[in-house]
Amino acid sequence: MAGEYDTAITVFSPDGRLFQVEYAQEAVKKGSTAVGVRGKNIVVLGVEKKAVAVLQEDRTVRKICVLDDHVAMAFAGLTADARVLMHRARIECQSHRLNVEDPVTIEYITRYIADLQQKYTQGRGRRPFGLSTLIVGFDYDGTPRLYSTDPSGTYHEWKANAIGRQAKTVREYLEKSYTETIYESTHECIKLCIRALLEVVQSGSKNVEIAVMIRHKPLKTLSHEEVEKYIAEIEKENEIEAEKKKQAKQMGSTTTTQPTLTTQTSKKE
Predict the structure, then answer these.
(1) Distance of CA 232 to the CA centre of its chain
(2) How many CB atoms lie within 10 A of CB 127?
(3) Residue 69 carries which DSSP code?
């Protein structure tokens, strides 16, 4: 009987769990890290780039894709599953334009993707999608949006979020670092996304892919040179911060030592 809970996606275990959905979520945790950051006039997506074979074209390995002129998606998990979701979502975006004569809102296409993921947790002869997504873009009134979906079909809106490998570590960093100042600055939003990725990814522009969408502009993938400039700026700031901490520590040590010397002198007198 216990085996049925493991293999059937429509059978709950006695403690109310759907094991196949949980296994799909484990597949997400083994996927490349993806980060999304929302600013006032920008949305940023960043993904970890894993090493490819020497003879393989790295342009064929993409974790960030465009769904419509104003919508982009990053994912963590099974790439083949993502391709199916991506294809269905693109068709829905075009169908909506054709029928309603308006582009989809970001919540609409997110809900569509989440509904599709949820349907695959309820029927026989299929399995849940083994991926989570980050969906970003701008509504027609210019409002920036960032949503996430998971294999269970749940979706939420975020200011900044991470999925994939070590997502919890990256999310904790984002929670500590995301501020109103960063929200207001396009430059700082991009830096925060890169900083968050560098928490779990080896430093270097070849190990990360960054895509940005500014209001009323299409998605742009930053070149290696552009990413390298941001990384150099971040490393310089880290060095300055480390030096400040070192000086503060030395000053604190001097302050602590001074009264002790005075006391010893008084005793001798």
Answers:
(1) 21
(2) 15
(3) T
| 42 close to 213: Cβ distance less than 8 angstroms | yes
Residues 51 and 29: their CA atoms lie apart, in Å, by: 18
Among 194, 233, 229, 231, which residue's Cα sits nearest to residue 211?
194
Residues forming a β-bridge with 68 = 71
Please tell us whether the domain made up of 28-248 is placed in CATH 3.60.20.10. Answer: yes
Contacts of 136 (CB under 8 A, 6+ apart): 36, 38, 43, 44, 45, 71, 72, 73, 74, 106, 144, 145, 146, 147, 213
Tens-place pLDDT, residues 7-20: 666 788 888 888 89
DSSP string computed for 137-182: EE-TT--EEEEEE-TTS-EEE-SEEEESTTHHHHHHHHHHH--HHH
How far is Cα 267 from Cα 113, in angstroms, rounded to an integer?
78
- What is the length of the chain? 269
Give alpha helix (H) positions in the chain.
2-7, 19-29, 79-100, 106-119, 167-177, 180-184, 186-198, 224-268
pLDDT at position 220 is 96
Please give the distance of CA 231 from its chain centroid, rounded to a whole number. Answer: 18
Domain ranges of the chain: 28-248
- Tell me how many degrees the CA angle 199-200-206 measures, rounded to the nearest 5: 100
Distance (Å, whole) CA 49 – CA 33: 9
What would the pLDDT profile of 93-150 be if each residue is shown by its tens digit?
A: 999 999 999 999 999 999 999 999 999 998 777 899 999 999 999 999 999 999 999 9
- Residue whose tokens read 């949305």: 43
What are the residues facing 74 on neighbouring strands?
A: 64, 134
